Amino acid sequence: MVKKLVCALLLAGVSVTASAAPATKDQLLVPPPTARHFTISSKAGKHGDNWVWTLPDGRIASRMSMSLRGWITEVDEVTTLGPDGRPVAIDVRGYTDSGDATEHFSVDPAGIAHWQTSVDSGSAPFGTKRYSSYGGPWFDGVDDASALLAAGERGVELLPGGKGRLRIVRSVEITGPKGPETIKLGFTEGFGFAPRPYWLTADNKFFGSAGQISLLPEGYEGNAERLKAIGEEETAKLVRDVSHRFLASANAAPTLFDHVKLFDSVGGRYLPDRAVLVTGGKVAAVGAGGSLRAPAGARVIDGRGKTLLPGLWDSHRHVGGDDFELIQNVATGITNYRSPGSLIEDAQSIFKRRAAGDLLAPDGKVSVIVDRKDPLAAQGALTVNSAEETIAAVRKIKAAGMWGVKFYTSMNPAWIAPGAAEAHKLGLHVHGHVPAGMRPLDAVRAGYDEVTHINFIMMQAMPQSVVDKANTAARLEGPAQYGKDVDLDSPAMKAFYAELAKRKTIVDPTLTVWEPLMTSDGSAISPEYAPYAPVAPPAVARGWKISGYPLFANLTRDDFRKSFAKMVGLVGRLHQAGVRVVAGTDGYGLEIVRELELYQQAGLTNAEALQTATIIPARMTGMDGRVGSVAPGKTADLILVDGDAEANLGALRQVDKVVLDGVLMDGDALREAAGFSGRPVVAN
To answer: How far apart are CA 49 and CA 46, in angstroms?
Structure first.
């Protein structure tokens, strides 16, 4: 179904679970030779398969098998259609990296729909609604596009909540095994934060999806890049209209923020009752509250009860493929980013359209991933087979105008030093995952300027059997199993921190990646997303409630939580030793405030945590002369939040105003454009 594919591809494949024991791979359905076959692929190669066929009793069966860099999905589904073509029974079995994917949906004789997963259950009158399922294959063989198109703007009511729409944008001729044929590009609405591209056949049946990861019929994979480009072109048109509204010249008039509490990111302190004047895209003056005169025509904003800060950085924000997420970043106070891996053409498109005023987006720097050509290679990577090809890839990244090189887990360790040396020669930043067979200190000694993800820092203390398989799920399973027993204050670990500090190594922990996976049990939405759930689309909010990474080796969820607590503690030890930390999410970006809250739990002060998302990443990228702090002459990238951020970092979620390159924007209007129905909740 449409929702299933959209959520699977765009909500990171979060799945649901219901039973205590998921079906094993051997217990799942085996597709017959006559099944419709779709492949899952990216520029790095093929990642999996999706089959659909009809059972002898008329039910529709589907099966999906996928490995994304060692994250495994093995699921099947059987669907029963009612007389009107709507599913009236759905059974999903199997597992994903988020847990047991078992799900059951049915409609009883009284017309009441019932559903059960590991994270929710419920019932409601079925009526004319359609059930929006959670798990199962990305395409389950149920073509509900015709129903969505017939409903037009009124849309189709969904269970458990929300409303889905689909509209056709244009037709495109492609070439496949049968020769030329015409397919259609549509956009779905109501299944995510923003409209999403969706490809249909000429008779309005599901054809496929094309993006950084594509799901296309076997034999049509050669069309993936073109279809991706067309989808992005049409998305850019939608985003351009939104961007022009916010970036209108009238919004660039001078603005005086008066009587605000100001965060001084350089000094690591909050200053009471300050005034900040913005003119010509720059911070013109900073002074005591009431001391600055507003020029003629300026807007004056009373900042009493509010906090003014430099715009936030997300230092692990993979940009590209979703322009609406960039608008959402601005809405949540992110004015700058560092992408640790984007496609070159996507990055260049973002830079060009932002400079032209056609894309409302944070400003930032981009790295490109380099990985060994391998079934476990990162999707979107430049893949290489030798040290010479590694050096060539580094040169390609520099020639494209990118900022850094990110090496990945399947790289041959012997290629890191020559690749890093060439990158440094060309002025590129070097960072990444730690390749299998290496420990983080090995990578740093080979030339890494920065290590991404706290689990790879924890790899310093892991058994060799884990280190050797770090390009598989062992990169999480090892720290989850052994992390709780690591002595963070042992002489070996202290020596490790000291060498990282001496070498001026930077660490990008992304704790918010691991918190939901390691601590969730399906009973509540993780703190990263809970404040946003009431104002997010229902399908998105439901997807945020997960049952956690599957347990193994007789471990308990409490064991996983203890290991995560060690990861949090590890960030604190790094900071105490003088290692620079930059805050990043590896997600939507809205997780950034929770990342900072976790740094506070690790022992950083409020101001120190905020520095990891302001001045420190600005210095890392060499942009601190323009951004990262509020000072005369700097680019006016600012956020005004309701409440006292000094007393509660959660106030950062209450963005009242955003100034981006001197353009003033209203936080509520930005949130609406980004797909939120209101302001997130702030915990006291």
So the answer is: 9
What is this structure's pTM? 0.94
Sequential DSSP letters for 135-184:
SS-S--S---HHHHHHHGGG-EEEESS-EEEEEEEEEEEEEETTEEEEEE
Q: Which pair of tokens denotes residue 166?
A: 């689909």
How many CB atoms neighbour CB 505 within 10 A?
22
CB-based contacts of 104, cutoff 8 Å, min separation 6: 18, 90, 91, 92, 114, 115, 116
Distance CA 495, CA 397 (A): 34
Query: pLDDT (tens digit, 9 = 90+) per residue, 58-93?
Result: 999 999 999 988 888 999 999 999 999 999 999 999
With beta carbons less than 8 A apart as the criterion, state whether 329 and 314 touch. Answer: yes
Q: Which tokens sit at 489?
A: 């204050």
Per residue in 637-651, pLDDT tens? 999 999 999 999 999
249 Cβ contact list (under 8 Å, min separation 6): none
Contacts 24+ apart (CB under 8 A), 298-301: 298/253, 298/254, 298/255, 298/256, 299/253, 299/254, 299/255, 299/256, 299/664, 300/255, 300/256, 300/258, 301/255, 301/256, 301/257, 301/258, 301/640, 301/657
Query: In angstroms, rounded to a whole number, what is the distance separating the alpha carbons of residues 548 and 555?
Result: 13
Partnered with residue 110 across adjacent β-strands are none
> In whole angstroms, what is the distance from residue 477 CA to residue 471 CA?
11
